[in-house]
# Entry
Amino acid sequence: MDLLRSRGFVAVDADEVYGELVSRGRPLLAVLVDAFGTAVLTREGDLDRPFLASVVFSDHSALTRLDAITHPWVGREMRRQLDAARGRAVFAALPLYRPEHRSSLALDEVWSIQVPPAIAVDRLVEQRAMTEDAARARITSQMSNDAREELADEVIWNNTDRQALGERIDELLRERGLDGH
# Structure
């Protein structure tokens, strides 16, 4: 999203929306506490995201429950932000993209940024200080690259560096007449 924002585009990120919705005092945080108990809170009363992740990525039924609770909230807020956004193009980042997002978020096109699973695990360990087992559990719980590719209009491989990723995104923007920001 930073690449697109740095080029002057509006970008609505599901992870950022989720973070806002579960911040202290927000109703979704209370719903999560009702569903999973006060153990999901830090001493300060914030959502303990690493703890909740450790629970849901080791228990499929807990992950299903979390998704059933949070996805509608995030979807509604993303749709509200996308509808309010102005610009030549507006982008949505959906790490957990599902086929119904195309219509529910009124997406004209879907670009899937993909990375081989081994690189994804390495990046989660390096960038988010996860254990290798936790990173593998997270990757395993998500849709495969092949399944993502079937849903996408464009696949962008992100298995080298940010410069190469930026060049590929710039190429796609040029193809759509969206360069020049």
In short: Strands lie at 10-13, 90-93, 111-114, 154-157. The chain has one domain: 2-175. The two ends are 15 Å apart (CA to CA). The longest strand covers residues 10-13.
